[in-house]
């Protein structure tokens, strides 16, 4: 038997849905409090503090406190060379699909007002590029996967393969707390969950997450090398976030996404054919049973309330053209 459990059970301990829910709630609250202030103090150090101290370490501590096996819960299993190549192609081609989905969503949001200009630094030199690659791609790939495709997806494994993948992806998207960046993390979360579940290795998710974020950092750096972007002003960025240019970009990226998305699906099928296995769990249960059980689900509802409040503030920002809270 490869895996046991309602979520994750081992001879020495078990993680639970209620415990995983509390872990998620605590991570979200720490993210919007400690994470917010540390990232305002220093973006680079703030991200590292958020990823390692507020997301990864609590996840590892929780598993150890429950007496469960880190290897079993976090799926610390080797990733074969063929799997590595397939994962590389899946996420390289899947990036255009995620970008297309986000552009469509931004087109919709732009109908209500001026979109918020992302406050994320872009590398302008090779030194800045490698620093951002470490901060944004490596740290997120390592730390966020431990929480989402590690603890959370394992805890909900008993609801079935796709319900656990989709539910974890929704929680992953919510955790970003960004109204303009909802669909891309949701799509990414689904693909990450799929490759981790299929290969039974968290390293597939870490690699895929790194590739996705690494492409974003690399594209930003590449654009900054063009003469036009070197002298770009904030007003020019705002113009690019209006409906017409966003729609044009969505149509262009959509053509690429159609081709690349086909390759992505073929590689996902090839990955599945390499790992035709059944995961045995001690108990099968519907997701609705957990969500209706307030004793177990209340941390999720707290997280949902925080998410809804942040989304409302950002929608009002878009409509009014300025932050509601200054």
What key attributes describe this structure?
326 residues; mainly alpha; two-stranded antiparallel sheet; 75% helix
What does this molecule look like?
This protein has one domain (8-320). Helix content is 75%, strand content 2%. It has 13 helices and 2 strands; from the N terminus they run ββααααααααααααα. It has helices at 17-41, 43-65, 70-73, 81-110, 126-155, 161-175, 183-199, 202-224, 227-230, 234-240, 243-274, 287-292, 294-320; strands spanning 8-10, 13-15. The protein has a two-stranded antiparallel ribbon with strand order 1-2. A hairpin with a 2-residue loop joins strand 1 (8-10) and strand 2. It starts with 7 loop residues before the first strand and ends in a 6-residue tail after the last helix. 38% of the residues are buried.
What's the helix and strand layout?
Blueprint: E1 8-10, E2 13-15, H1 17-41, H2 43-65, H3 70-73, H4 81-110, H5 126-155, H6 161-175, H7 183-199, H8 202-224, H9 227-230, H10 234-240, H11 243-274, H12 287-292, H13 294-320
Antiparallel strand pairs: 1-2
Order of helices and strands: EEHHHHHHHHHHHHH
- The largest beta-sheet arranges its strands as 1-2
Count of individual helical segments: 13
Mean pLDDT: 90
Radius of gyration: 20 Å
Span of the ends, CA to CA? 56 Å
Structural classification: mainly alpha
Which percent band covers the strand fraction? under 5%
Helix content: over 70%
